[in-house]
Amino acid sequence: MKQLLTFIKKEFHHILRDTRSMLVLIGLPIIQLLIFGFAITNEVRNTNIAILDNAKDKATQNIITRIESSQYFDIDQTIKTNDQIEKAFKTGRIKLAIVFQSNFMKELAHNNKAQIQLISDATDPNQATTLINYASSIIMDYQNEFNTTNKLPYTINTETRMLYNPQLKGAYTSVPGVMGMILLLISAMMTSIAIVKEKELGTMEVLLVSPMKPWLVIISKVIPYFVISLINVATILILSVFVLGLPIQGSLLLLIFSTVIYLFCALSLGLLISTVTDTQQAAMLISLLGLMLPVVMLSGYAFPIANMPFILQVISNAVPAKWYIIIVKGVMIKGIDITQIWKELVILLGMTAVFLLISIKRFKIRL
Amino acid sequence: MRTLIFLLRKEFLQIIRNKLILGMIFALPLIQLILLPNAATYEMKNITLSVVDHDHSEDSRKLINKFTASGYFQLTDYSETYNQALDQVEKDVADLIVEIPQGFERDLIRESETKIMIAANAISGQTAGLAVAYSNSIIRDFNNDVRVELIPQSRLNTIPVIEITSSNWFNPLMNYKEFIVPGVLALLVTLVGYLMSSLNIVKEKEIGTIEQLNVSPIKKYQFILGKLIPFWFIGLIVMSVGFVISFIVYGIYPEGSFWVGYLFAGVYLIALLGFGLLTSTFADTQQQAMFIAYFFMLVFILLGGLFSPTENMPDWARYLTYINPVSYLIDVMRMLVLKGSSFWDLRNHFLIVIGFAIVFNGLAIWNYKKTV
Fold this sequence. Notes:
- The complex is a heterodimer.
- By secondary structure, chain A is of the alpha/beta class.
- Chain A has 15 helices and five strands.
- Chain A has a four-stranded mixed beta sheet with strand order 2-1-3-4, with helices on both faces.
- Chain B folds into two domains: 2-39 and 175-367, no CATH class; 47-156, abc type-2 transporter like fold.
- Chain B has helices at residues 2-17, 19-35, 58-69, 82-90, 104-110, 125-150, 153-156, 176-207, 210-215, 220-250, 258-282, 286-302, 315-322, 325-339, 347-367, and strands at 47-53, 73-78, 96-100, 113-121, 161-169.
- Chain B has a four-stranded mixed beta sheet with strand order 2-1-3-4, sandwiched between helices.
- In chain B, helix 3 (58-69) packs across helix 6 (125-150), helix 8 runs antiparallel to helix 10 (220-250) and helix 11 runs parallel beside helix 15.
- Classes of the chains: A alpha/beta, B alpha/beta.
- At the A-B interface, helix 2, helix 4, strand 4, helix 6 and strand 5 of A face helix 2, helix 4, strand 4, helix 6 and strand 5 of B.
- Strand 5 (155-163) of chain A pairs parallel with strand 4 of chain B, so a sheet runs across the interface.
């Protein structure tokens, strides 16, 4: 026991001495969470658009003013001819062009029909759909006001309720996502590199011939990173509650308990990576190049898993972050209890066991 | 020149000899390019729907049919009460609740106005927004059907209507893959180039071989060039293979000129690798370099506009994207692939990235000291 403590102390010294790495390890989750919480949003704001007004009458002026004064759009340029539209799109300056027909007001008043064409840059199809929806609803508002005396009969009104997240804050998806991503990446990367480093520099042999049992050597390497990960969990939770205004509806204890299990899973994945690689470079390539995008894209946090093709849905089951994100969403935001997430917890424990078994097997062969 | 060639030979040998790493550099990005873009879709096909129908009228049934026939929704159950439906959402069985109140049909015909309630699981605001938009358009359609049925044609025509037509340029089929594949390719090229270059010099430092290089008559710029050129080739090769895969797997190829694409990637890689080498000269151990690289990579990716448009960000974040090299590559790839922008359209992007290249490499050369 005393030996183990000495070893753990040594590892802590190694880590604490390197202030730059410490800064990154502790600071990164904070910065990432703030970027997610405040910078990344899918709300449309100040999108540059172009206007081609072939009518220039009171009606079009009115609509243009409404569009300009909405927070969604900024009029970047007023253009005169159709071919200028393409040019504006190709330089990437505008995302939407609005074209009014000539004699707009006259047509609307006398023929009861006037045309507006919305042209979107569908490079990003989602953004295009959203922009067209916003622009249409502004135009519809104008039309309804134009028709106040003449209300359409037989109207179905829709009342919409957004459950759990009425203000549609991005943080509700990003916080569980960031927790799943950052804890997995940092823990897996940190442990794998710490162990491989000793191999690469040749100091591993010194450790293994010491009277310490090999698995105690490994445990003493893992514990400091476990502590750092716990610190990360604490900062993420504190920030998301007090800065991003996210609730913790369920039990905090359950949340922490599940997080500890997830950390075990991530650390044992790191261990596994360290047994299959010999150089830090290789360990890093696997843990960053190999894990980063799959974790982001297949964990169900950037894209809903239900929409993916079948094969990817199957593969996504192997991503630990997927299960952890379900747990965090459930406990933090929906406030559900352990009876509804025990399955996910068992899956995470099972993955941990598999990672550990393989690593132990491979580790012994090498000795 | 001769010195540089010797240096290059050494670097290439070191890279080629390490089969594990060489394999990973190519296999990892390419497998991801083949698989991952398929995951990236917001296109809703199976929004799970729980219906609470208190009315049980002909109209309410017609409306529900319209939902299920649209292809966007998958009816999971009829619930008796709203709370029961809410339970389904809690269990993740349903994403959307449509509640039709008692007297829905009666009010529609007698009062000329009726209402309906929709509730969406909004933990992900984006999906909730799309689900609600789809249901609104279905309800609007239904509403129009009702009007056509009940109002004589002559009266309908006297109401002034603004006709809105919309067209989606550059990607008329609204194929999300056309958007995501160029972005993912840009990202993978970046990851490979940056991770490799950021570890390179520091590895020599850690293992101690840098001293041998330092005591040799190699000039600082030769040293940096010797490090940069091999990765520059690797980056371009990864990109070429990526282009081939995007064409074979997704049928996506640049609308614009290939040469402009390579020219830009060439300049971009010089900038990126310069930044990697700069990272490397700042770090003392590979571990440190990795953590620093991890930090920048994540920030670059998050603010690069791969998934969420940079236009929507608040001002401070938008200014940050201006100094983010990754966002320029993602941007240019998309403009080339989808819009077929020309060299002249992209001139600003070129100028900015050339600026990055000069600054990063200048700093890297300056910061590399031939002493330990």
